[in-house]
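Handout, page 2. Input:
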Amino acid sequence: MRKLTYFVACSIDGFIGDPGGDASSMLAFVDEEFFGFLTGEYPETLPTHGRRPLGIDDLPNKRFDTIIQGRASYDVALREGITSPYAHLREYVASRTLKESPDPHVEIIAQDLVGKVRELKAEDGELGIYLCGGSQLAGELLGEIDELVVKTYPQVYGSGMPMFGAGFSVTDFTLESVRMFGNGVLVRTYARGR
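Output:
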């Protein structure tokens, strides 16, 4: 069974973006040490259009071969004219409003999101599934998330888009590791408590 991993950036107070979803303030913390961690441990989480100019387009996928993202996350790339932001992965976009994919490499999941995720998790394979966001999608898939990798940036937002846009529900996870960086970023990995 393949794992669904929510690999997410957030503020100290648990927001993945401001009320409109913008998290660009967190980019200031992607220094040499942290960038080395991302390219060394999670290279496939860097979008294709960012990998090419950095000369890291040939890095192999280490943890994921599939990505699921929500419509709002996908729209960030579409606004830049990028229709396949993660061309090095199998791409799925969960959307009830996007009727047709603008790219043959991107499949739209319009119905039975949980069923599709279960189907992907049941596939044979060494690599897992990267849940890219956003908040509403993570809330809908909370019951299917096997692992959380939370990159916490040393910022307080006060309000904004929560990590999970869902109703109240207690879901236990077990802390597996914590890594601290010189710039104050923490990366915590949790496994679902079963």
